[in-house]
Amino acid sequence: MKIIYWSQTGNTEKMASLIKEGIESEGKKAELVQVSEVSLEDVKNEEILILGCPSSGAEELEEIDMEPFVQSLEGNINGKKVALFGSWGWGNGEWMLEWESRMKSYGAELISEGLTVQEYPEGEDEEKCIDFGKRIAK
Question: Please, which residues have CB within 8 angstroms of residue 120's CB and are 6 or more apart in sequence?
């Protein structure tokens, strides 16, 4: 499994590491990959897509690397299982709701609601990330 993410401050990267920990605690393998290092071809054979991006700007996906990658998924993930996660510092989480809706419109099957954490995952939020990974692995 590949956990594909974009992180500027390290918050979403930490979430990705914790999700990986949860997946691996269930006996599955996971690989952390920055979105700038992956292509559509790299994920076509993945059974599950795990995508992470913080809320940027006016509650939207990061526009240089993540947005173009997500756009490339249209028409290529019909029936594929997808899990979404990301951190945020302001707003109300609208970016995640829109991202979920978009993935569904691409034909993806969401494994669960997107996981969001305000700022850096600590304490209870760390456990939420690990549990999210465990759910993905099952």
Answer: 10, 11, 14, 87
